[in-house]
Amino acid sequence: MGKLVMRRSAADNEYLHKDFHGALSNGIEYLHETYGPEAVREYLLQFVRSYYAPLREQIAARGLEALKEHFERMYAVEGGSVRIEMGGDTLTLHVERCPAVTHLREHGYKVARMFSETSRTVNEALVEGTPFEAEMPDYDDATGRSTQIFRRRAA
């Protein structure tokens, strides 16, 4: 019998990385304790600028629609509870239950004191250099419940 070869790529697999959130939380806590809050923000900025470079290009080219599609895919894969509203030059996410915080708590991981920056700083970095701005007017540390708003910058 001849040799059978199976060819697969990462794209053939279901994308799910929930335990990544545990490592991220531990890393954020380490950076915070060792180097301070600005080190956490700088790490997240560097991450977004490299990993999300294609998304940032799409936001610059297509506007908030690209960001809306990104969040729809992300929350569908991770199973979060979110309501997304888009009107005019504003995109609003009403996150009832953050899938990352839920996973961390359900599996006994420590939730970093600055874990909210994985939304706040990441969102700000996603729209950096575009006509848009991001804000997160509320965030609940226990559940990750938040309101995240993206809007066109004032002229």
If you had to describe this structure to a student in words, what would you say it looks like?
- The protein is an alpha+beta fold and 155 residues long.
- It has a single domain, classed as Muramoyl-pentapeptide Carboxypeptidase, domain 2 (2-Layer Sandwich), CATH 3.30.1380.
- Strands 1-2-4-3 form a four-stranded antiparallel β-sheet.
- Helix 1 crosses helix 5.
- The termini are far apart.
- 25% of the residues are buried.
Helix-strand layout with pairing:
Elements: H1 18-35, H2 37-51, H3 53-62, H4 64-78, E1 81-87, E2 90-97, H5 99-106, H6 117-126, E3 132-139, E4 146-152
Q: Which properties best describe this structure?
A:
155 residues; alpha+beta; Muramoyl-pentapeptide Carboxypeptidase, domain 2; 4-stranded antiparallel sheet; 6 helices; 49% helix; globular
CATH-defined architecture: 2-Layer Sandwich
Major beta sheet, strand line-up: 1-2-4-3
Order of helices and strands: HHHHEEHHEE
Total beta strand runs: 4
**Count of DSSP helices?**
6
Which topology does CATH recognise? Muramoyl-pentapeptide Carboxypeptidase, domain 2
Runs in which pLDDT lies below 50 for 5 or more consecutive residues are none
Beta-strand percentage range? 15-25%
Measure the end-to-end span.
70 Å
Mean pLDDT: 92
Biggest β-sheet: count, sense, barrel? 4 strands, antiparallel
Q: What does the radius of gyration come to? A: 17 Å
Q: Shape from CA axes?
A: globular
Count of the separate structural domains: 1
Structural class: alpha+beta
Supply the CATH class.
Alpha Beta
